[in-house]
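ARCHIVE CARD
CATEGORY: sequence design from structure
SOURCE FIELD: tokenized fold
FIELD CONTENT:
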């Protein structure tokens, strides 16, 4: 970490922050800050103009700094070390610490205690005490965890003492604290988020600031004047009707902007007011006469038109808002798909390896009423999804490089599920690759051993056949080879008394091929029958092998004679 000799809050410190991505801004970048949107942060960093705090915000900031200063001695007591305010950076990532120990191994972060933090500390109390020390900090709101994770990233500290306190003057009312430990998965998300933020910042064009949309209804209609006795004695109803219908016809129904929607919503209320005033005029006229058909028909016609306009416009507002919400979400989904497709093209992989994230855009815009708030919510979620896809692309690149380094890239048949495997954590991916390589090598060794054994058997059989052929008298005429092989020498009397226990099936299994009792009988070996079973003496087996070798040698010699 590179430290900077700056006083927090000074103009120099503010100028430094304008050129770095700060830990206190990380929640806004991640879209989890209730105080600043991601779009507002883009506007600030692209223009260099930050919004000035209003009176209420400044009071809150001042109270926070005061509480932090009062809580610092408590933190030093917990740590057993002094704390020093430090501003540090790692590349373009920065953090301003409420306090660091002398060796920069522990950090201190203070917030004013509020209802949300009280609830978080209550949740910590429900965690199993055996696992509480390192897991309790996960109960803290995400915006605080994001800020402290960047602090640990910049400083390299082991942990952060997070403290929240409430003071009355210099009297402590309540204090809560816990340790925040690194969350490396969150850290990866922050780094990826800033990477995407840099790309967005390079192309960002701040929108022109517009005042909050305030609805403007059409111009007021002239006051409707009706005087009656037994008949209508004075009325401007015809002029009123003509003017009213002209105003109704000029009401804008092509709604695009927040201003359009605000105008339409105000007009809906205005139409309801017109209906009410007409009803009152009608009632007033009724109080003066029992029936004036022309007057009532005109009033009813105007009132009906006002009601129809109100209902149509109200439906149009709702329908158009829903339509624009769908358009915003659809545009974001298309942009995300294009981003993922570009990552896959840039990777130059044979198949798309980066899957498209599935952000909950519908959930993000739920409850949002203005077009600007919908766009900002969708934009923040889209940026997070792009950052996630960027992380996945880097992971796939690392995994495939590791695969090539292990020599597995040339064995695609071993990895038919590569698209699924490539997005696994690097350690898991490498373990799977090594396991499959080991299995492949074992199969290769087994196949080689089988081949070598078969070759050895072939050579041994060839050598044995050659040896038996060499024992045949060389001077004997070739035609003699075709004569039957002499029967084996009869067994001695002791061998003849040996019991027959060797089944024909066992002989075939030992030889590795099937022979019959009739064939062995032709070689001079008679079996003893036990029902359908044929059994031989155990001492017959080596003699059967010799007879088979001699028989094969004879067949070979006979074939050679025929060819000669």
């Amino acid at each position: 970490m590179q430290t900077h000799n700056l006083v927090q809050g000074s103009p120099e410190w503010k100028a430094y922050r304008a050129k770095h991505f700060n830990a206190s801004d990380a929640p806004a970048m991640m879209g989890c800050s209730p105080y600043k949107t991601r779009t507002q942060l883009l506007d600030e960093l692209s223009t260099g103009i930050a919004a000035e705090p209003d009176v209420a915000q400044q009071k809150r900031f001042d109270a926070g700094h005061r509480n932090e200063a009062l809580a610092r001695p408590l933190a030093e007591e917990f740590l057993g070390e002094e704390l020093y305010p430090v501003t540090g950076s790692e590349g373009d990532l920065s953090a301003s610490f409420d306090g660091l120990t002398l060796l920069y191994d522990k950090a201190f972060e203070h917030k004013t205690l509020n209802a949300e933090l009280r609830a978080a500390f209550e949740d910590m109390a429900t965690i199993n005490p055996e696992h509480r020390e390192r897991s309790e900090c996960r109960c803290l709101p995400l915006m605080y965890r994001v800020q402290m994770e960047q602090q640990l990233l910049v400083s390299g500290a082991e942990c952060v003492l997070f403290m929240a306190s409430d003071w009355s003057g210099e009297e402590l009312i309540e204090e809560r604290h816990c340790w925040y430990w690194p969350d490396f998965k969150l850290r990866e998300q922050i780094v990826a988020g800033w990477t995407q933020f840099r790309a967005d910042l390079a192309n960002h064009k701040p929108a022109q600031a517009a005042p909050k949309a305030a609805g403007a209804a059409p111009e007021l209609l002239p006051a409707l004047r009706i005087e009656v006795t037994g008949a209508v004695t004075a009325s401007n109803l015809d002029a009123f009707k003509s003017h009213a219908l002209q105003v109704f016809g000029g009401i804008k129904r092509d709604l695009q902007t927040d201003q359009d929607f605000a105008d339409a919503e105000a007009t809906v209320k205005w139409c309801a007011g017109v209906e009410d005033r007409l009803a009152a005029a009608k009632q007033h006229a009724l109080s003066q006469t029992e029936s004036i058909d022309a007057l009532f028909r005109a009033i009813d016609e105007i009132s009906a038109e006002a009601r129809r306009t109100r209902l149509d416009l109200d439906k149009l507002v709702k329908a158009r808002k829903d339509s624009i919400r769908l358009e915003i979400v659809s545009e974001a989904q298309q942009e995300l798909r294009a981003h993922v497709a570009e990552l896959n093209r840039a990777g130059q992989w044979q198949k798309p390896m980066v899957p498209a994230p599935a952000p909950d855009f519908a959930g993000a815009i739920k409850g949002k009423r203005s077009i600007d708030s919908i766009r900002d919510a969708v934009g923040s979620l889209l940026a997070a999804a792009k950052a996630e896809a960027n992380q996945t692309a880097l992971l796939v690149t690392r995994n495939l490089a590791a695969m090539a380094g292990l020599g597995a890239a040339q064995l695609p048949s071993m990895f038919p599920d590569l698209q699924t495997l490539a997005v696994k954590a690097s350690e898991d991916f490498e373990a799977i690759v090594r396991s499959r390589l080991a299995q492949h090598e074992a199969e290769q060794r087994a196949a080689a051993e089988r081949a070598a054994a078969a070759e050895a058997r072939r050579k041994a059989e060839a050598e044995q056949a050659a040896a038996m052929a060499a024992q045949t008298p060389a001077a004997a005429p070739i035609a003699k080879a075709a004569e039957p092989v002499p029967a084996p020498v009869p067994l001695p009397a002791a061998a003849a008394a040996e019991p027959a226990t060797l089944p024909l099936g066992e002989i075939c299994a030992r030889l590795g091929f099937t022979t019959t009792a009739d064939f062995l009988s032709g070689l001079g070996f008679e079996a003893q029958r036990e029902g359908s079973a044929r059994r031989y003496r155990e001492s017959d087996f080596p003699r059967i092998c010799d007879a088979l070798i001699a028989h094969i040698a004879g067949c070979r010699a006979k074939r050679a004679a025929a060819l000669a």
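CARD ANNOTATION: The longest strand covers residues 159-168. The two ends are 93 Å apart (CA to CA).
SHELF: design records, drawer C
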